[in-house]
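BUG: 3D viewer hangs when loading the predicted structure for this chain

Environment: internal workstation, default settings.
Expected: structure renders.
Actual: progress bar stalls at 90%.

Input used:
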Amino acid sequence: MHIDLHTHSTASDGTDTPAELMRNAAAAGLDVVALTDHDSVRGHAEAIAALPEGLTLVTGAELSCRMDGVGLHMLAYLFDPDEPELARERELVRDDRVPRAQTMVRKLQALGVPVEWEQVARIAGDGSVGRPHIATALVELGVVETVSDAFTPEWLANGGRAYAEKHELDPFEAIRLVKAAGGVTVFAHPLAVKRGEVVPEASMARFAAAGLDGIEVDHMDHDEPTRARLCGLAKELGLLATGSSDYHGSRKTVRLGEYTTDPEIYGEITRRATGAFPVPGAGGPRPV
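Structure tokens produced before the viewer hung:
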């Protein structure tokens, strides 16, 4: 089985619509794909309707969190999307995205970058506006070569010159809320230092004690020594070790299924979840 548990669509900051993402996942040879848009479940219905036969969808979201001034992300899988407390927190985060993005645009303008809010809004379209949309604007303007190049202290990285904070969950509260909604939590790209400051490794033990289920080990922003260290931490703390592409369509060079999760780990995630269940595809023939 080929299992990719971290992807994004136009419902947040990817470039594939949810339906296109499902077709592309099947064409890439995936058996299971998770749709984990930022703080949003808006793309799930379209993805389910477009699921090709033979592809299974894991519904989820990537929750924006902050601890001691450091931003981090929690992947939440197979939770009840209608659970009111978690739904309210996701809405608060989404509502703060536009003011935050507008603040970053103003900071960039103060740095001499000729970016306009209308440009960023056009790029975001109907998605939840975020830093990748602003980064794409910087690419269009020739300020940076790639979206990844914008996520540096010089520009949009955590604490960077044009960075602005937004409403974010406390990670311990995120773990509690997801668990209460019947879901499973995995700490996304925990040591992706190229994105900016990361929380101390010691925090993972605290998260595990609070009910964290796993950590994302195999990820494009983790080099081999980092992956080895995270594998050791996962074993030490009794956490599941996942792998996934963090696919954003054409905004990143990573391919669907470039990093994957072991089927046994996926099976354990589904066994722990009670809020929702994986959705088997029956919406049409699998691409060849």
